[in-house]
Amino acid sequence: MEGVEIIFKIAAIGLITAVVSQILKQAGKDEIGTFATLAGLIVVIVMVLSLIGDLFGTIKTMFDFG
Amino acid sequence: MDIIFKIIGVGLITCVAVLIVKPVRSDFAMLISMVGGVIILVMILSSLTTAISLIKSIANQTGIDGNLLSLVFKIIGVGYLTEFTASMCADAGSGGLGDKVLLGGKVVILVMALPIITSILTIVMELLPT
Predict the structure, then answer these.
(1) Domain range for residue B73?
(2) Entry pTM
(3) Nearest-CA distance A61 → chain B (Å)
(4) Percent of chain B at pLDDT above 90?
(5) ∠ CA(B98), CA(B22), CA(B29), 5° rounding?
(6) With contacts defined as CB-CB under 8 Å, which chain B residues touch A41?
(7) Are both B41 and B76 inside the same structural domain?
(8) What angle do CA B5, A15, A11 make, to 5 degrees?
């Protein structure tokens, strides 16, 4: 069950970046908040892409694609 | 058999995580549901491996052409991948794009099945008296 942890990780990253951007917005640093949100999104997308790449590689080897 | 409990657990956890994250960040909720789908699919594939190897060994005993069997497995793989992608697009709220992916999968399967159809046609033509 090594796969479930990534769901919690992504949910945690989402909540943390939301809180950080809210705090920065309250402090009047709107653009830094936007960059924090963007960084969180990029980290999560990299994680998701590696997972989907693994899935496609598994299917490729399993169903005899050259 | 106990893999079904794992799949149910991953599905429920993903569902709850999506529900928690969605009001805060709706784009992350889509990514979480995507990851849950990928994890469930990987679990299914690991148990599908045994079935595929069994089918391959049976087909080897009947002496069927290996190319035909691998073509059938490729077509099954295209079907699974397009189905997965279409449901992911539907989750993300653009179901029309998923329908187009399904259409692309159908066209690809048709093109891949053309050699089988031509081989059947040549066999029938040989059987016909000229």
Answers:
(1) 65-130
(2) 0.75
(3) 10
(4) 25
(5) 45
(6) 27-28
(7) no
(8) 20
